Amino acid sequence: MELLKSFRFKKSREKEKEAGGEHSSDNAVSEPFSLPSPIPEWPPGGGFAEGKIQMGELTLMKVTKFQKIWSFSQKNRNENGATFYKPIDVPSGFFLLGHCCHQNNKPLHGFALAVRESTTEKPLASPAIQKPVDYVLIWKSSSSENETGEESNVYFWVPSPPEGYQAMGFLVTKGPDKPLLDEIACVRTDLTDRSEVRNLILDIQPRSGDATFQVWNTRPAHRGMQGQGIPTGTFFCSANQQCMDDLNPVCLKNANCDLHAMPNLEQIHALIQHHGPMVFFHPKEKFLPSSVSWFFKNGAALYTKENSVGETIDVDGANLPAHGHNDGQHWIDLPNDTAKGNVKFGNLDSTELYCHIKPALGGTFTDIAMWVFCPFNGPGTLKLGMLNIPLGKIGQHVGDWEHFTLRIDNFDGVLSSIYYSQHSGGVWVDTPELEFITGNKAAVYSSKYGHASYPHAGLYLQGSQKLGIGIRNDAARSDFVLDSSRKYQIVAANYLGDDVVEPHWLKFMREWGPTVIYRSRINADRIIGYLPLKIKCSLEKFLNKLPCELCKEEGPTGPKEKNNWLGDERC
């Protein structure tokens, strides 16, 4: 499957070069990566997958065809460079917000937004969009610094907006003449939100005494279920070597919190059935997942500080204390009888993914967070160079909630990226870098014993990959596989109101495991006490940075207690 992914990456890059990649003609056209299989016709209803999204006074449209302007890679620097594009084939009446930039070492992926004033909304005193009054040159390239062979100078312009309006992006030209004023739109300030620079795409160090020129991609500063920021697909750049805190990029804003482009219940089912990943557990995994009802039915009990015997839990969790907060007065534990050994090993046949559907990025995307429950999280293994040291009970606990998240584009219902949750953090992976198993269903690899999610098979270290020191996370394909497109349950979707009823157990805000009776750090200190002094010091610093789930002495809380239930994913 790695060969399949690599082949698709190579073909995408070849297509990009032919249509406008490095060393190509200036007027060549590029289109972004597309999924392996065609997108079906989604069930009708609402404003989902209609190609346009109305946000109050603005109508938004996604542009996915680009004309290459300039490609840059600096000589004598270990970097891949980037290419700048102009979105083209913009429908009549719509205006661009800026040009785009993409790293050369990745397939072209993404879009640019175009906007127009809505015809259905009564306009306020001031129009929603206006053309700029001028352009200001912020940086000019020097062809001697570019190793792509492109000789012409390139000019970067920032629009000067009218008073009360904001420029959303930058324009790039091949000559010194200013762009046309009607080439771009500025947006009324109350329809914009604060954005933030995210990843540095390009860092051009001039040979002369000129300032460094840097280019970033951006994302809305306010994200999560209630975030109103909408990404525009443009880049942000600066030639002033400003402090990061002084940079002030902006994005669009869903000012009315309008969620009409979110999918209805029938559309959600269709999305999951089309895009739901294949989840692979390690071939040596002992602690498999189960359904919550199987866990309760097979003896899991509710404990309190006053009741050490434990109360049987109803199959649907109806007798669990609901809502409130984690007050430490209640927790769930494995049964005390002979069934304990069987319950901790889970039951894959009963397993289903629990789906939380929520708006993302101002309602222009849908996040489908897919939660998996494992009755038990196994112990960790420390990799120390060539040595693998079992950590005894360190890392193990009752009740393990893990998840991954599909991010769906509400313009067309296409999978944009997948978030892989990995212990105390995680990573977003764009679709060109996913491993597709069948159709548009990507792979999710669950690590041995710890159940963290990864996009590809392999060894992942929590620690220093360079030094080969860290907690092992082994991911591999096996016959222990879960098809999330078939075995799932939608448990929460606030924006749908009464269409989705949350199960009783989801409202249990306490711990799904007891206080751990072992003292994990003492055990770890005993292990590293036998190591050479130099390695011992490095390892002690590493252990101090371990995720809390490896060192804390409490079971985990359920999905609704995680900060990403309402907020954005941690990465």
From TrEMBL:
Region Disordered, residue ranges:
1-35
Basic and acidic residues: which segments have biased composition? 13-25
Q: State the source organism's domain of life.
A: Eukaryota
Q: InterPro entries from the entry? A: Vps62 (IPR009291)
The protein's name is: Vacuolar sorting-associated protein (DUF946)
